[in-house]
Amino acid sequence: MDIIKVISRLMDYPRAELQAQASGIEAVINSAREISPEMRQQLVHLLHEIYDGDLLDAQEAYTGLFDRGRSLSLLLFEHVHGESRDRGQAMVDLLSIYEAHGFSINARELPDHIPLHLEFLAHRPDLEVREGLSDISHILGVLSARLQERESAYAALFDSLLMISGVNVDISELREKVAGEKRDDTPEELDKIWEEEAVTFGAGDALGSGCSSSTPVPPKKSANEAVAVRWAN
Asked: Does this model's pTM top 0.85?
């Protein structure tokens, strides 16, 4: 599904190669019938907001939004397991899903990075795409609500994914809940995060015997079934 690829690219760190492809990306957005005309307009607006100006400014804005604090983390399991031991096993399970479908990732990338997971879904049949997005709809909804509270155009990415999933998420209700949240991207809150014990997820022991809270998902199990188990809690 081409629109999923576009959303994945727009959700990732702004890059010069995408800036050069902006006109082609806009054409894909305008041809996407999986989302409404209004949603297409919002995605085009975001595309221009990111890539019409200075790329360094766009990169700085992106980092300030998604890389400070945990509330807008683009790591799925951050919103499910936090820093618990279950997170490591969930990483192992998701990696096995990717490998079972012939989807390889860079060793530096975490498997639950949302843009990466969208890239995986984009190569699956449309039904699996919608089921996969449905499995994480609660996370997508919360991220959209938090971005809307910050008046960020990036919210359109998550609203588009929800529209494609077909899941009816009450964003207004979620916005009421997140409106009372304490911001975690202030200097004081960031200091608290850095003071907490670090948990590293990567190759070797960090993904292996140190996280044994449950049995890994068998490779032949479907991606949607296996991921849903991890995100249902």
From this structure: no
